[in-house]
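Recap quiz, item 2
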Amino acid sequence: MAENQQLIEGNQTYASLDTVIGDVVLDQRRHKLPWLTTFGIASIFALFVLPLTLAWLLYQGIGVWGNNIPVGWGFPIVNFVWWIGIGHAGTLISAILLLLRQQWRNSINRFAEAMTIFAVMCAGMYPLFHTGRPWVAAYWLLPYPNIMAVWPQFRSPLMWDVFAVSTYFTVSLVFWFLGLVPDFATLRDKATNKFAKYAYAIPAMGWRGSHRHWHRYEQAYLILAGLSTPLVLSVHTIVSYDFAVSIVPGWNVTVFPPYFVAGAVFAGFAMVLLLAIPVRALYGLKDLITMRHIDWMAKIMLTTGLIVFYGYNLEVFYGWFSGEKVETALMQWRFYGPYAWAYWLLIFCNGIAPQILWSPKARRNIPIVWTVSFIVTIGMWLERFVIIPMSLMRNYLPSSDRMFIPTFWDFSMFFGTIGFFIFMMFLFVRFMPSITIFEMKDLLYKLGADKKPQSDAVGAGEAH
Amino acid sequence: MSHAPIAPKIYGMVAEFETPDQLVHAASRAKEFGYTSIDGHSPFPIHGMSEATGFKCNLVPWIFLVGGILGGLTGIALESYVSILDLPLEIGGKPLFSLPSFFPIMYECTILFSALAGAIGMMALNGFPRPYHPIFDCPGFERASQDRFFLAIEADDPLYSEIETRRFLAGLEPINISVVEEEE
Amino acid sequence: MEDQTPNRLDMDLVRQKLADKRGPAYWRSLEEIAETPEFQGWLDDEFPHRRTLLEIDRRSLLKYMGASLALAGLAGCRGMELEELKVVPYVKQPEEMVPGKPLFYATAWTLGGVGLGLLVESHEGRPTKIEGNPDHPGSLGATTAQTQAAILSLYDPDRSAMVLNDGDGSTWDAFMDAVAAEFSNQKAVHGAGIRILTEVVVSPTLKAQLDGFLKVYPGARWHQYEPFARDNAFDGANLAFGQPVEAVYHLTKAKVIVSLDSDFLQDGLESVVLARQFAEGRRKLTAEDMNRLYVFESQLTCTGATSDHRWSMKPSSVHAVATALLQSVRSQGAVSPPKELSGADFNAVVQDLLAHRGQAVVIVGDQQPPEVHAIGHALNVALGAVGQTVTYHEPRAAHAVHTGRDLKSLVDDMNAGKVDVLVMLGGNPVFDAPVDYNFGEALKRVSRLRIRYGLYEDETTDACAAVDGGHSWHLPATHFLEQWSDTRGYDGTATVAQPLTAPLYDARSPHQLVAALAGDGAPGHDLMSDGYQIIADHWQSSGHISGDFDKGLAEVLHAGIVPNTTLAPRVVALKTFDAAPPSTTGFEVVLRPDPNLHDGRFNNNGWLMELPRPMTQLVWDNAAIISLKDAETLGVQRGDVVQVTVGKQTLAIPAFPQPGHPVGSVLIHTGFGRTKTGSVGMPTQHQSLMGFDLYAKTVGVDSYVLKTSGAAAYVTGATLTKTGQSETLVSTQIHHSMEGRDIVRAGTLAEYLRVPSLNPDKLANPPIVEQGDLDTGVPTETPEQPNIDMYPEEIWTTNLPQWGMTIDLNLCTGCNACITACQAENNIPVVGKTQVMKGREMQWLRIDRYYGGADPDNPSEVLVQPVACVQCEKAPCEPVCPVGATVHSHEGLNQMVYNRCVGTRYCSNNCPYKVRRFNFLDYSNLQFQFTEPATLINKIYKKDGVSLLKMVSNPDVTVRGRGVMEKCSYCVQRINDARIEAKKAGQEIQDGAILTACQQVCPTKTILFGNIADKKSEVFKSRSDERAYRLLEELNTRPRTSHLGKVRNVNPAITAQEGTA
């Protein structure tokens, strides 16, 4: 109990929770200069850089990127896998931790789910546009009867991707929305501004907190969590099949599925911390996202990080143990080739840097945790770069070896999606409760916090 | 504390409480008293309410299950029909029915269908979306989603009577009691 | 201008003009025909002194005209240029023309003084593909890369499209008026002021015509010049035999071949027949049958790579080797071995030669000085080769002159002011003449008429126009597929070449032009004289065609050769001559014609520009090719610019260190760095944005600045210095080592006879040799690898033919002909240097090149390996395609469904052979971006040209759009064609009925294609050969293409030191 106490700090009441969380949305005065500037910068990338890049891409074809033969997949797929990975923390936190009855999840799951949705949006952009002709890819990849009597080819991992990613997106969206309904109702009832009232009334769908509804609602929410858990594990497994199923040296490794999933969680938690830390500072949510949360998330990062690092070592071992000349050559290329810096930097970012989190002091030191999360986020991108283009640069026939050099448009699209992501996150924080209100109340109730003596319980609502 | 003495149609009588425990306690008392159509409203799920009111409904899990089964079958059926009957192609020397390659999509379909069926089914059972409900007219009900807990005894309850019910509710020491009319 | 109304026209005049108008007649307006002052005025408006206008306007304007004329011209295309009166609209179908079914016409092409008999494919009068003429002794059905690409020049939008007078647009009639006026003056002095400069003339008709011209104007002179004519060879023959004879080799009879710096397997059109003969001697792998090739060369060539023993040395050192060989052969034993190779090795070579008297031959390269040629001849005499492996004939060329000296005398006359009228038939002397002649300056002394007749407006055109005083004329020449002509093949066999189409532009054939000049010059008369008639008259008078002439000529045209016209052998007697060793200092610079661009005449041909040079794999550039040692001492990497200084001449050019290149010599190819040519060959600058390379600099530098008349062969006394700048040189292969993998299998004949296998595993533990099936003579197939597969072996059981291919690395010389043939057959676009730099070349077929041995400076062996899609039976590319755009046919083809492809590029990633090509940009429609960035502006500005370029497309093959993957299809269009033919004949497809483009063009018959399910087929036999292996078969991809390992006929006495695997 003493431990759990730290999950909510300060003298919170149901009403004060509403205020702390709800006012972030309802009280505009909270959105000051830092919000506006960051949002401004993000929107430049989201609304200008990204569309411009895509326009040029569609006009010219993917030749504007650095891709070539043999490196058919360059930045776009690197970024795709990177974003998908980031998108994993959300559902994982909500679903798995819910099943494991980890109450500490309540204050971060909403936030993480939103992250998932937007990350998957960014990810989804890449496979679509990296064909250079999305208008074809978009509908030829879907199975539907047509006049040409052609269908997709279901043996292709890319086809599996289409299903996995779209399913993941849909289910995450549903999960997220369900969680929001009661909070929309709260905001609806709390809002004073008429427009806001209507705006929240519509998605609230007339939620009135009847215990019958709560009954079914909880059943559904729990089962949905149960479904999301195998889903979230399957998605990155299937993404890893894109590589593991092929015969490309450096790709056809059986260790990929587990270490891709671990990597996804790793990256996901890093991103949650990366965003949650400034947000909790910016919006005074320190009482709800406490040091304890940060500490636990850091622990998870450490664990998954170790799994990922094990994966790297296994790759090296495989390269040597398989006795395959090609595999060995590839490993040496990673160690000593022109892109060796990427490999060693990766080892530092994902292998060395997280080790500092062994120390509890470090785990509770905000700057350190944030820096590590940042390093890890970079490291995870490098991992995909090392796996995808760097493997493709080397071939069974040395004659076809070629270097891959990214172009301006490779970077502009990458940063464009980052901008888009931050843009969406800010809109989310601005317009939706970034912490699940009703679950926090539930938690408060379970912790018996409401029994604490309160100044004036009756007028708690009006007090603020 | 004022309400219309005569109303064309009454939805029911609503008592407002301050803590979840009071609500649960009230609900169980009402059940013992013999009330059948009781409805409780709270800002967060209160465990024990369903037991207290004797409400049972396990339809939702079944919807999920059926949805899942249907999804899985749809997935494998689609893949088999396409790859064997409608568009049989020689692909890398693999057999037309290559189950290992078909499994992932079948799996994803299972989850997709199950999740959608469950979510939509739950909404349907709860009768959402329902923008208007009489109880919204209950004074102070906006706090039902914030920090108050309401117990409604509906007018269609056989034991419902203006006086008895009020007395009964009053015995539960609510913050206040109000009769809610149903709009025409 | 409403006062100039048509009713002012004299309609009678119009009709009359139309009546005597001949040749394709197109007119914009009645005014034009009437040539009324209004029209002249309008013309002036359209071309107001265009010299002053911007280059771009000028060129695009020309192209608009070119394109429109071309389209009009095509509408009236016939297989051959018929008499115009007979032209009928296409309502009644001409005989033997089935729409959609191509017709083949025999014709011939001439390059570097050698003719090659061809069959050209024509779709409804639109020539699309060039093949060799199997009946022609110089072709035997094969061609070279340049020949394949010649078709593209026909449709080149940058071709010279109209007559230019002093740089302004004009007409042929105007030209004839000018000529008539000038020549009438010249009549008085018997044409003493007239000079005619041609390239090396092979055409018997043209020779006769020019001789006729000289009769009309006795004072006139006819000069020939070509930068890479056979000057040294003729001088050498003169030195050895006292007469300029042409050596014709018969390598089929040769068991030992010594190449003294000669790339006879790749260089020039004669390489086609020589390579075929050479290959015949390497098919049977027995000590008796297999020939042996020794190469002493000053650069790494295809011949050197194919050889059994190769020594690289400075060009000047070849002389020493030749002399030593001659002395040793004469004295029956090795004396004074040259320092380039050890005494033992040298002795071994000598003994080998002596052991094969009458079966040995020595071939000397054209870039070697006359002395070495003389020694070569002497060696052949000493070896009793004459009459056996080599015969001497009168030259193919009309006059066996030393073109260098010939040009000199012309330049002297010009400088002396003796030349009033200079007529230049082809060639580009201002660009490629020796610098010390300073031809451009001399032109200024040609006071009255400077007439240039050529396929392109080039440096010479500009130089002529730049001179003030007198007048300059540029006359558009016909492409060889647009004209009646004739030529002589390698052995002298004459061919009457017929046109495949009417001229696309307002061009005339050289025969028409000379006829006009020789005639009385009545305006518009002789120029209209029928090119056909000129040729026909010549051959009628020549008397080679017996019987009814028209019938006879028809047969000759059909066959593509004129019977018994081979040049008579000459009896030669060896004179004593002194062959002083060359004095040499410093670096030696060898200027060679670019393997693709020749002397620069193909400079505007995208296919050739982008075709990787043999060995260097360099595209779009020339470079200073030096040895690795020299690169080290100079401290330069690939692309670092070095300053080559010869006397006063300097040249800054990026260096290209090349394994196997001799120390102390620089090889530089010519034909690049043009100052005036089409848009493909024009150099552009490097561009970059924010540190990202956008467009690489193209294309090469002009190396003729180092060409001086003094040096007969190569320049000595050069110095190389590092400049510090650096440029991007793009080569399509960056890794040159097999890294110990089992990719190209090679071995020595001795070893192979002991254990008949090249399989490393088998060699590790030799198996029992399978006995061939004695009844059929078909060897039992080498056991397939065990089936390692989770799926049943046979998914589809079918009795359809199963297509397969074999590539015999023993025969492949790496000459690149197959690549260009594939490009022409399958509508493969050119993508430009920048795209190749990024790794996006589109050629479906590539020739990998690997070096063997420990010493990078002098690799013990160089291996070439053609690789296209091997059509895996268990293709890794197929299961990964999400839309089923690449699937397997029941005949075992790995098919690409272009219009289903969405462009995920997963198939390419998963292809272990990396033979798939992707349209990263809209290459097929952006053909203008060879050298320029693909901006909207030049998209508009070049559109017309592209529409013309598209006419070269093969209608049987889809043109791929942007974002689509493509790859080798085993020429499925040809398979289908053969299937239809077989159905019509009601029989199975016969073995050999299908020739893939690469197979058909190959001079050495390296490639075999056919039905591997048919145990009798050639391809099956070859597939079952002991040397056959499937590339990367350990991946269980089951390729349908097998490679046959290379077996070198190494001289056991030398094995230890050279040429071992």
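Chain B has a mean pLDDT of 83.
Residues 59-126 of chain B form one domain.
End of item.
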